[in-house]
């Protein structure tokens, strides 16, 4: 049994030890101890690697998926200047990367490097996006192959913020045979505003090959705000195709006003020649195409002469049945003819994967509809409907027959001046309609992809 003195010594030692722990060891622990962080260069806490994974903002490299470069191509702007595009997909659902260095390399058909362009990219999370580089000078060389690569490993950062909801509406391509132009509208459907929005447009041909690209910017979009964007090119797209690959839904619009019998009443000429040429035109359409018919005089036929259909015989019968009215409907209402044709592209009969085409013929100038005090209203109304039609993505071909036409008006109604045709004699209409059929059958650009991207952290 320990003596009282021994017990007292043990007590003193215990008190002294406790004092040392409390006064020296505990403060020293808090001074020297560092809790696990995502910035200490060590794997600790719930991290999957050194300062990455777990609750850290950075994603570990071995947990990240490399971005997939789907394709990269260069497009001629002028003979010595090209634009390059890389189309990329990031499979990392919650992680993005900022300021990732990349390079485009352009090679000619001898595999000689003719140009390079470096830059920094923002890689958005869980998204397909495009990296666009304009105005790459190649001199007299012709790039035939484009290589894109990231030249550094992306540093993946977790991002749980709302993904920007940017909706692209009313996109349309026009003037593709001359000076191509895309019009579109971008709307911010998110709950917060976004700034520095890059918009890249890519145009594909009927085989889904990219044949053109361009870029523009929107400075800022508030919640629910929208903005119009325009993309233009200085030269037509080069599709180099000669056979139809994409179906077309074609509405024929034919003038049956009184002047269409001015060359003879039995049979009515030039109307009879027009109908024969129109039937030949239908015969040149493909098995996947549809065709319909609207004839017009003082007003357009209602219901229309033939709805969009693959039953070409039925449509040709409707063409043969077109006649000049004997009840006073002898005027020329081009506007109503276009409007009725446009309506078919909003019906359930329209093939949404087909090109929308209107081929409109007249032998005179518009004289209807009327507006008190405005003698030019028939023409301005025709132009208004034509603009609305073209904005919807519909191509318009116009045919002026004879010498009593307004060429400037018909050129402005047409999608481009090249979409306007004139012929003095109805005997030559067959060759005109054949030329239009060949033009329609070109494997022209049919798909537009517009990619909005909220840029972050770019240098």
Describe it for me?
The chain is an alpha+beta fold. Helix content is 21%, strand content 35%. The chain is built from 7 helices and 21 strands. The protein has helices spanning 4-32, 271-283, 312-320, 334-344, 377-391, 407-413, 429-441; strands at 68-78, 81-90, 95-107, 113-123, 127-137, 145-150, 157-158, 166-174, 181-188, 194-204, 210-221, 226-232, 248-255, 264-265, 268-269, 290-296, 306-309, 355-362, 394-401, 420-423, 447-454. The strands form 6 sheets. The protein has a 6-stranded mixed sheet with strand order 17-16-13-18-19-20, with helices on both faces. A hairpin with a 6-residue loop joins strand 8 and strand 9 (181-188). Helix 2 runs antiparallel to helix 3 (312-320) and helix 2 (271-283) packs parallel to helix 7 (429-441). The longest helix is centred in the N-terminal third of the chain and has 29 residues, at 4-32. The chain is elongated and about 145 Å long. The protein starts with a helix and ends in a 5-residue tail after the last strand. The mean pLDDT is 86.
What is the topology, as strand order, of the major beta sheet?
17-16-13-18-19-20
Structural class: alpha+beta
Report how far the terminal alpha carbons are from each other: 81 Å
Shape descriptor: elongated
Percent of residues in β-strands: 35-45%
Number of strands: 21
Subunit organisation of the chains: single chain
Q: Main beta sheet: strand number and arrangement?
A: 6 strands, mixed
How large, in whole angstroms, is the Cα Rg? Answer: 34 Å
Mean pLDDT over the full residue set: 86
Number of helices: 7
């Amino acid at each position: 049994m320990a003596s009282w003195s021994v017990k007292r010594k043990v007590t003193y030692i215990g008190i002294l030890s406790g004092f040392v722990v409390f006064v020296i060891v505990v403060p020293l622990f808090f001074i020297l101890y560092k809790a696990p962080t995502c910035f200490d260069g060590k794997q600790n806490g719930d991290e999957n690697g050194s300062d990455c994974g777990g609750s850290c903002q950075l994603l570990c490299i071995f947990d990240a998926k490399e971005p997939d470069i789907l394709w990269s191509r260069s497009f001629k702007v002028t003979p010595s200047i090209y634009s390059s595009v890389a189309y990329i997909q990031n499979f990392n659902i919650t992680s993005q990367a900022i300021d990732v260095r990349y390079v485009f390399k352009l090679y000619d058909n001898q595999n000689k490097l003719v140009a390079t362009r470096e830059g920094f990219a923002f890689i958005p999370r869980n998204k397909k996006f495009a990296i666009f580089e304009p105005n790459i000078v190649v001199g007299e060389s012709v790039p035939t192959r484009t290589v894109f690569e990231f030249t550094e490993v992306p540093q993946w950062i977790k991002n749980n913020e709302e993904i920007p909801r940017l909706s692209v509406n009313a996109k349309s391509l026009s003037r593709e045979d001359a000076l191509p132009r895309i019009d579109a509208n971008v709307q911010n459907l998110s709950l917060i505003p976004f700034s520095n929005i890059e918009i890249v447009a890519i145009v594909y041909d009927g085989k889904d090959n990219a044949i053109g690209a361009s870029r523009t910017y929107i400075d800022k979009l508030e919640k629910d705000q929208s903005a119009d964007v325009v993309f233009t090119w200085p030269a037509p797209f080069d599709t180099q195709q000669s056979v139809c690959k994409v179906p077309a839904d074609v509405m024929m619009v034919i003038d049956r006003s009184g002047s269409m019998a001015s060359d003879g009443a039995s049979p009515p000429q030039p109307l009879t020649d027009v109908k024969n040429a129109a039937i030949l035109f239908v015969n040149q359409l493909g098995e996947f195409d549809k065709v319909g018919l609207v004839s017009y005089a003082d007003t357009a036929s209602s219901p229309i002469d033939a709805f969009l259909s693959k039953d070409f015989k039925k449509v040709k019968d409707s063409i043969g049945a077109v006649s000049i009215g004997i009840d006073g409907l002898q005027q020329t209402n081009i506007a109503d003819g276009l409007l009725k044709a446009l309506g078919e592209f909003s019906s359930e009969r329209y093939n949404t994967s087909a090109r929308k085409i209107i081929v409109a013929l007249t032998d005179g100038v518009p004289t209807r509809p009327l507006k008190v005090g405005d003698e030019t209203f028939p023409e301005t109304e025709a132009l208004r409907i034509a603009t609305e039609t073209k904005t919807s993505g519909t191509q318009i071909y116009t045919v002026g027959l004879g010498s009593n036409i307004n060429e400037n008006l018909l050129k402005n109604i047409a999608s481009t001046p090249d979409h306007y045709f004139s012929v003095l004699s109805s005997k030559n209409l067959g060759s005109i309609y054949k030329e239009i059929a060949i033009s329609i059958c070109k494997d022209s650009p049919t798909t537009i992809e517009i990619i909005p991207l909220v840029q972050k952290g770019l240098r």
